[in-house]
Amino acid sequence: MKRELADAINRQIAGMTVLYEKLHHYHWFVKGPSFYTLHAKFEDLYNEAAAAVDELAERLLAVGESPLSTLKQCLETSPVREAAGGETAEQMVKQLIDDYGVLRKEIGAAIRLADEEGDDVTSDMLTSLAGQVDKNVWMLRSFLG
């Protein structure tokens, strides 16, 4: 695996790790009429993010690369930023749509790199992740109306 692809996967690991923490924050602090719906959805999403991090990290290890593994590394590398705190439920959902959008764009670039290298396994894994992200964005947008 070329360095550029390994770096792209590590950006996804970093992004999903920060997103995982942000989703936990939102899960704990969401309030209002949508509490029950969003509290449960944020839990589903952080579990999904955790699974993605594990799968991506294990792929890097399988091909002899090293995944980012500290919060410091992830915060420095992630295209996703931590929760600011004090967001309304609607602001949380809008921020997640933006975060997933950034991750999705980078997933597309990583897929192209994997395809250029002929790395079908990584390409397939990233394509599956892209589908999950697309579905999450659709659901979050639908929640907003």
Task: Describe the protein in words.
With 145 residues, the protein is mostly helical. It is built from 5 helices and no strands. The chain has helices at residues 3-29, 35-62, 71-77, 89-117, 120-144. The radius of gyration is 15 Å and the shape is elongated.
User: Tell me, what's the shape?
Assistant: elongated
Largest sheet: none
Decide which structural class fits the backbone: mainly alpha
β-strand amount: under 5%
User: Over all CA atoms, what is the radius of gyration?
Assistant: 15 Å
**Counted beta strands:** 0
Share of helical residues: over 70%
Which runs of at least 5 residues are low in confidence (pLDDT < 50)? none
Mean pLDDT: 96
Short summary:
The protein is mainly alpha-helical and 145 residues long.
What are the defining features of this structure?
0% strand; 145 residues; mainly alpha; 5 helices; elongated
Write the topology of this structure.
Blueprint lengths: L2 H27 L5 H28 L8 H7 L11 H29 L2 H25 L1
